[in-house]
Amino acid sequence: MQIIASIFKKPLDLEKVREMIIAGADVLRVKFAHMEWGEIIEVVKKIKILIDEMKTDTKIMVDIPEQKIRLGHLAFEKNKVGSGEQFIIRPSKSSYNIDDYIPVNLHRLDLYFKPGDKVSLGDGETAFVVKEVIEQDKVLVEFLNDGEVDEYRGLMSPNLSDCMDHCSIAVSSVALFHDVRPDYVALSFVNSADYVNKIKEEIKQIYKGEWNPKILAKIESPEGLKNLAEIMDASDGVVFARVDLGLTTDYTEIILEQKRVCKMGLEKGKPVIIATQILTSCIDNAIPHRSELADLTNLILDGASGILLSQETSLNEHPGKVIEIARKIIQKVEEYNKKN
To answer: DSSP letters along 249-268, please?
Structure first.
């Protein structure tokens, strides 16, 4: 089983990257979010130089950005909200006080928000329901729990996940990789085989066969799950993104869908990578929570080809430690599989 480790890009700490490579990361993941494209390319260049210096066969994955609705700048950065409190959302880069309005990076709101939509902020720590679309640039929302509104956090809902044009951003990104040419390209919110085929064709047209990365389709939305078979056939593998699926689909079915994806991957001979919240407790703890141990063990037994560590490595002062823990668990389960 492969281990894909995410790096924290700003500022890039090459010693932590070195630690991850030594610990046994098979692939280093660089995500475009929160940085300019030019900055990301420079990060990839530096990582490639380090890999060459260390003489390893560590691969690089670039995670192409999705079209994302985000909150704007807030003067007080984090703002507490209470269950049942109502606020106005408006298109804007910033707001001094959320009592005036909560800013989002859109020009029109009526195209993306409908009454009754449940929308999550970040990874779902705070959520609101759309009460009324007052005007095309004015929406009334009501928070569903006590929490915080933090600047620049992403917004996600079942409706938003499939109404955004993620493919166009991915297509425009393809031309950026002349100087770095990563081994893997991960596409966000893939909802059809057509999305994957457009990227493949764009790479073919631009690079004329001189760069042929593995294309990984991230399954993050209801449409992605619905069209899973055709997406898997078109891609070189899929990434089952559990956090976003928990925000866009029925969270009670996520692990059942995970088992379905793993089974289909085995049947089709396509890699399935399980992403996020695998060993999160190891950011602070020396050993994983027992529920995480059970989770990782079961996804290996189900036939997953790899795991993608996100915050486990990107926010960890000692990212190599969590990779060592993951490798130890993987080896133990694989030994068990051989004996049984």
So the answer is: S-GGGHHHHHHHHHHHHHHH
- Show Cβ contacts of residue 300 under 8 Å, excluding neighbours closer than 6 positions: 1, 329, 330, 333, 334, 337
Note whether 222 and 158 are within 8 A (CB). Answer: yes
Using only C-alpha atoms, the chain has a radius of gyration, in whole angstroms, of 20
pLDDT digits (tens, 9 = 90+) for 124-144: 889 999 999 999 999 999 999
Q: Is the dihedral of CA 235, 238, 243, 247 positive or negative?
A: positive
Q: Which residues contact 258 (CB under 8 A, 6 or more apart)?
A: 240, 242, 274, 299, 302
The single-letter code of the amino acid at 179 is D
pLDDT digits (tens, 9 = 90+) for 68-84: 788 999 988 789 999 99
- SS3 state at 233: helix
Give, to the nearest 10 degrees, the angle between helix 166-173 and helix 193-207: 20
Burial class of residue 82, CB neighbours in 10 A (0-12, 13-18, 19+): exposed
Structure tokens at 184: 């893997």
Spatial CB neighbours of 125, under 8 Å, sequence gap ≥ 6: 147, 148
Minimal CA–CA distance to 64: which of 182, 156, 221?
A: 182
pTM across the whole model = 0.89
